[in-house]
Amino acid sequence: MIDRLRYPLPFPDEPTYLILMIVYSLLCSAEHGFDAWFRNSAAFDAQAAGGAIACPICGDTGIRKALMAPAIRPSSKAAVTPTAEAIATPTAEVADHQAVAMQALREIRRKIEADCDYVGDNFAEEARKIHYGEVEAHGIYGESSEADREALAEEGIEVGRIPWVPLGN
Ligand SMILES: [Zn+2]
Q1: 6 C-alpha vs ligand 1 centroid, how far in Å?
Q2: How far apart are CA 81 and CA 62, in angstroms?
């Protein structure tokens, strides 16, 4: 779901990238929110299309992915992606958009830190343990190299990357 962030993010400083395994936050058609793990997005799509995912609250099978938290859903204004030209010469609106995007990333970071376990350099190893069922599925985040990510992708282990923005005040 992180990769659904569609903001161009011109940060003043080069951000540190972390990587995480994703728990899908889902919504039923009655807007009940719940979390579920899937092997990858294709598995989610197949199960959702087949009605195999039921809302734990009402049993509804009309399930869709949500953003990680309702609080980070951007306003409709913020969802307008500025053109490259607009970024080159930021307007007040674009500057506002960037502030909204930064705020969204801070919220995501807070949620990840609250809900997921930090595994540091062991990310790839821990991701494999979860993927292959050696440990109970849980959200993790940590650092990984480009080589790690390529190897994980080859094994069909889906991970996301987000800019790890400073939390500020
Ligand atoms: Zn429901």
Answers
A1: 28
A2: 29
